[in-house]
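User: Fold this, then the next.

Assistant: Folding the first:
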Amino acid sequence: MSLESRERGVRIDPATGLPFPPMLVRFTQILARVPRWRAAVWSLALAVVIGAADHATGYRSGLSRFQVIPVALAAWTLGREIGLALALGCVSVWTGGEFLGGGWTMLAAWNAVVRALFLLSTAVVISALRRAVDEERHAARTDFLTGIPNRRSFVEAARAEIMRGKRYRRPFIVAYLDIDGFKAINDKFGHNQGDALLRIVGQTMRRGLREVDTVARIGGDEFALLMPETDGLHAEKILSKLQMRLMRQTEQNGWNVTFSIGSVTYVSPPTSVDEMTKTADRLLYEVKNTGKNQIRFETVGGERLAGVRVR
């Protein structure tokens, strides 16, 4: 089964990694795209509108209970502190209205306390839920062993890059990397050493690339690279340097391994993630079957090129 097909088979929110109901998923996706300044304006505007409507209809109309909406919005998008501040502001406005309207009684004081506790607890709970969602989202997209992005994260980044490529016609590189001799390390030194090797490979790959590049472990001893705004002229230089850095790191630790890499440069974007990953996977296994410790390049779209770099 392909990478993209496997991802589609998992019925979870692609933005949070959680099995949320579809409507809630859609709502959180919309909020995730709202800039902080706009969320702040919306929250404050809602609080003002609800407060004004409550004042116009009388403070006993019950409209003030809807202040929970801007408080929840602020807590979700801006954080607990802003949510708490807005909650206190809403309660202060309602309390001031009661006092100025001459309706300040023990019952009004009790209502003010209840409203304050309700809005403050809403801000705390909503902000805690947002933190939990963010942590779960990060965990769902991070390889637990190496700390770099996992298969799911790579597929999402690749899908986004394909869409960007179709719109702006910018080239990008996808490369698959496999550790030659990884099984021998596990057999000779044990799985702890094998895990340490995977961590060092992941960290070295991450340090050697740009922030906009995606480095992911997609399973076993196989890693994937996605490098936007990069053409075939730079692919050999980038990947050759990366291969040499990896060799130095593993030699320093006494691991007798090498690295096979299959790299495809897309001048014209592929139709799907499946097509993209199949091409990179094919190039990788051509290297594995013809001596290993090499880099095989291919360019798709524009001038089609192919080559092998042997260390």
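Now the next one, as you asked:
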Amino acid sequence: MPGVTRAGGRSNTRYVMLLHLPEGYMPSLVRDALITKIQTLPEQLRRSLTWDQGSEMHLHAQFTAAATMPICFCDPHAPWQRGSNENTNGLLRQYFPKGTDLTVHTAEHLDMVAVELNDRPRMTLGWDSPAERMTQLLNTNHSQQQCCNDR
């Protein structure tokens, strides 16, 4: 589903971040929205982003240069290479049925949907929610930084 990205760190959190793209999915719009969204994450969580072969990522090199975060592309017609993304797309279909014009939804509405998805426990996370896993990851990274800074 275009306009969807997830953030993860050393262990996958399944954390969902949605992009607001009211003017469509042109590569320059996706690049700019993705840069803005990714830069809200702490730098240590910006490891890589996995994407399909969609034309909206035509400017991936510019994104990588601006966000210092490489994009990994899946092989064509290989959705199993992005299983978590496919699962997230299924969850998003509960809010946005296939064919929904996502450009009509506000950024606030997309943020509300992301919060609901991130608060939803997942079996694959041992029934933790993505929000809980992200908090744990941020606390772990903060503790490690404190430790290293104390030396």
